[in-house]
């Protein structure tokens, strides 16, 4: 590898018109075009690294500009010393005082950091000819700790504690790797219950998801309690009826323990996307108690760790848990959520925090505090990313899988060269292609068609708008 260098990069504003079909909508985000602020890192060899962060449309260009500014700092850098010390590389990425002033480690600048950092991890994995998860799973505990970001979290977990935790899991790693390759990783679906879907669509998609093997379903709530109850009861009426289970389907009790599962072994979760104040969240969730959800996700402002703790305490008496994390912008927010006993489920986002190194910190803290990690994946490319992170969590860090569920949304996978897939038991297959890296490479054609505003789709949409016609509906396989 001697002499391998980053020589240049290109940044792409790619937007998919999910708003046309209402995909991805929730009580806070009633319109959204799933978008990727995407970077391709080039080297003085054939090797390329791809990375992205997720936005919901407008504003993707602002993130792209920030990505350019961060990527400028790594052009010309040799890769051997970076790969040998990814922890120091992360510190370098977040330590430019001018960029740091814009965060630190939050907001647009941190989203951009994630895209660049994830692209370097992708390069590293491809260079080693391993999928990203396997690259990290093959680290020694010492290498794992070296690549993790510990700044500002040593009051929650020290390097020594992390090392001890990883060493304890080390002897049984191989067995877990074999098991998950055979069985797949547990998943749940959100794409049955987007807020903008009609009741008919919710019913149809719930039946389809059940037939596909899912037994965990998430519904968007928070716009109107009567609507939520009606939609939730519709879903419950399908998933609680044993007759609807696919033939021969047996649900493992370990996957549903303590989750308010219904008589057919199915679990419902609800997600409010931050619409409530703390007391409102408690009052509203009391109204939704008949739905018996396992948890309420994002009940209030994502930075409010104390507020989440208060909601969790209040909802304990009606046996509803609290989940959050998709908008928790760095490891320090997760630290506080864990230290305050504020969450039952930790929902990391692969590109809202600064990329893989920071995820490793959060996985370690969650394992120490005994909180399951169920990553957020409602967006474009996020499912492709997070399966790698859940595998790292299971094989190296927590050693637990059946209590966990990884979010799955069935949108836009056709644009990726190494898309995720779900097996007949409703579980994620393990990505195995040695060329796939962090699974985020997009087809050139997709990047060209959906580039904003010059891609063929957006030109056609602008033409339609000029003629007063509705936007074209993109083909879905
Ligand atoms: C706007 C997005 O689709 C969100 O609704 C989505 O990420 C969601 O919160 C989720 O949990 O998947
Ligand atoms: Mg959510």
From TrEMBL:
> Where are the coiled-coil regions?
none
What are the recorded GO MF terms, alphabetically? Answer: L-fuconate dehydratase activity; magnesium ion binding
Keyword terms, alphabetized:
Lyase, Magnesium, Metal-binding
Q: Which EC number applies?
A: 4.2.1.68
Q: Which GO terms describe its biological process?
A: amino acid catabolic process; carbohydrate catabolic process
Which Pfam families does UniProt cross-reference here?
MR_MLE_C, MR_MLE_N
Q: Does the keyword Hydrolase apply?
A: no
Superkingdom of source = Eukaryota
User: Which top-level enzyme class is recorded in the Swiss-Prot or TrEMBL entry?
Assistant: lyase
PROSITE patterns named in the record: MR_MLE_2
What positions does the domain Mandelate racemase/muconate lactonizing enzyme C-terminal occupy? Answer: 199-318
- Catalytic activity from the UniProt record: L-fuconate = 2-dehydro-3-deoxy-L-fuconate + H2O
Know the name of this protein?
L-fuconate dehydratase
Q: Which InterPro entries match?
A: Enolase-like_C_sf, Enolase-like_N, Enolase_C-like, L-fuconate_dehydratase, Mandel_Rmase/mucon_lact_enz_CS, Mandelate_racemase_C, Mandelate_racemase_N_dom, RHMD-like
Q: Which cofactor does it need?
A: Mg(2+)
- What SUPFAM superfamilies does this protein's entry cite? Enolase C-terminal domain-like (SSF51604), Enolase N-terminal domain-like (SSF54826)
């Amino acid at each position: 590898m001697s002499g391998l260098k980053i020589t240049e990069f290109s940044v792409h504003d790619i937007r998919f018109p999910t708003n046309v079909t209402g995909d991805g909508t929730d009580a806070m985000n009633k319109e959204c075009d799933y978008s990727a602020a995407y970077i391709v890192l080039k080297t003085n060899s054939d090797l390329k690294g791809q990375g992205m962060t997720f936005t919901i449309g407008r504003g993707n260009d602002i993130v792209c500009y920030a990505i350019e500014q961060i990527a400028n700092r790594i052009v010309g850098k040799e890769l051997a010393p970076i790969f040998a010390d990814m922890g120091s590389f992360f510190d370098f990425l977040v330590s430019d005082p001018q960029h740091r002033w814009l965060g630190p480690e939050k907001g647009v600048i941190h989203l951009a950091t994630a895209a660049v950092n994830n692209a370097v991890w992708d390069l590293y994995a491809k260079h080693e000819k391993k999928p990203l998860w396997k690259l990290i799973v093959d680290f020694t505990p010492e290498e794992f700790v070296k690549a993790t970001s510990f700044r500002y979290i040593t009051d929650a977990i020290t390097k020594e504690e992390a090392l001890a935790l990883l060493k304890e899991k080390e002897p049984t790693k191989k067995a877990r790797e074999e098991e998950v390759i055979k069985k797949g990783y547990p998943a749940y679906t959100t794409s049955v219950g987007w807020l903008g879907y009609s009741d008919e669509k919710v019913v149809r998609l719930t039946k389809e998801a059940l037939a596909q093997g899912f037994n965990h379903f998430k519904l968007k709530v928070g716009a109107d309690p009567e609507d939520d109850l009606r939609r939730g009861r519709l879903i419950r009426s399908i998933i609680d009826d044993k007759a609807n289970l696919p033939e021969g389907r047996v649900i493992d009790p370990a996957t549903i323990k303590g989750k308010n599962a219904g008589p057919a072994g199915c679990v419902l979760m609800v997600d409010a996307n931050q619409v409530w104040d703390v007391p409102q969240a408690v009052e509203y969730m009391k109204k939704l108690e008949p739905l018996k959800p396992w948890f309420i996700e994002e009940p209030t402002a994502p930075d409010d760790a104390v507020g989440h703790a208060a909601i969790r305490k209040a909802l304990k008496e009606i046996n509803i848990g609290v989940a959050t994390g998709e908008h928790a912008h760095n490891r320090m927010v997760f630290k506080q959520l864990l230290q305050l006993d504020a969450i039952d489920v930790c929902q990391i986002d692969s590109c809202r925090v600064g990329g893989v190194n920071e995820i490793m910190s959060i996985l370690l803290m969650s394992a120490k505090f005994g909180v399951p990690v169920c990553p957020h994946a409602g967006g474009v490319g996020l499912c492709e990313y997070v399966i790698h992170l859940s595998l790292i969590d299971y094989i190296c860090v927590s050693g637990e899988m059946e209590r966990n569920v990884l979010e799955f949304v069935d949108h836009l996978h056709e644009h990726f060269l190494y898309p995720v897939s779900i097996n007949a038991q409703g579980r994620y297959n393990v990505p195995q292609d040695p060329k796939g890296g962090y699974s985020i490479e997009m087809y050139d054609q997709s990047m060209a068609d959906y580039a904003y505003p010059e891609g063929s789709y957006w030109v056609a949409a602008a033409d339609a708008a000029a003629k007063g016609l509705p936007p074209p509906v993109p083909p879905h396989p």
